[in-house]
Specification:
globular, 5 strands, alpha/beta, Rossmann fold, five-stranded parallel sheet, single chain
Length: about 180
């Protein structure tokens, strides 16, 4: 089974890539869901501050690969009949190591890239429950994710897809790429 993981800075287009993958019939495991589950388990409000705090605390307490391990447990529990599965949200090198150790050459990392300006404009328009609502918070989230090592992950991607030219073009590029894999 191929394991295709998406990475990228916040608001780069990972969620849109995942939507395309779902439409193509790929099962999807979102790493952020594990964090959300922990936030709810600790009886906290689901917002950017609490999600970031829990993600950080759990990494410090259990290791930088905690979310990959939980994601891997989730993948193992699925009864997947597909030839490939998609992981959304790889953020550090330790997570990549966990997935490469498990899936070896069947692990493919795809980075979604968009300029800071484009990402920040998208962020202000998007309305997901855990999203930042102003530019200061959005830039703080960027810094937090860079501190986790997402810049290293993006640089180590097997494939890089630009998301600068509009949603239809991006969706078509993702569809073509996933169809080849």
């Amino acid at each position: 089974m191929k394991v295709i993981a998406f990475t990228g800075m916040p608001f780069s287009g990972k969620s849109e890539a995942v939507k395309v993958a779902k439409k193509l019939g790929f099962p999807v495991v979102r790493m952020g869901d594990a964090v959300w589950e922990e936030v709810k388990k600790q009886d906290l409000n689901l917002n950017d501050k609490n999600v970031g705090m829990i993600a950080n605390e759990m990494r410090k307490k259990y290791g930088r690969d905690i979310w990959a391990k939980r994601t891997l447990d989730k993948i193992r529990s699925l009864k997947v009949e597909s030839s490939a599965i998609v992981i959304d949200g790889v953020r550090n090198a330790e997570e990549i190591d966990i997935f490469k150790k498990e899936f070896d050459k069947d692990f493919i990392l795809i980075a979604i890239e968009a300029s800071d300006y484009v990402r920040h404009m998208r962020a202000l328009k998007r309305d997901r429950q855990d999203d930042s609502k102003n530019l200061v918070n959005i830039k703080e989230r960027d810094k937090r994710e860079i501190s986790w090592g997402i810049d290293v992950v993006i640089a180590s991607a097997d494939i890089v897809v630009s998301n600068e030219n509009g949603i239809d073009d991006f969706r078509e590029n993702i569809r073509k790429m996933l169809s080849k894999i």
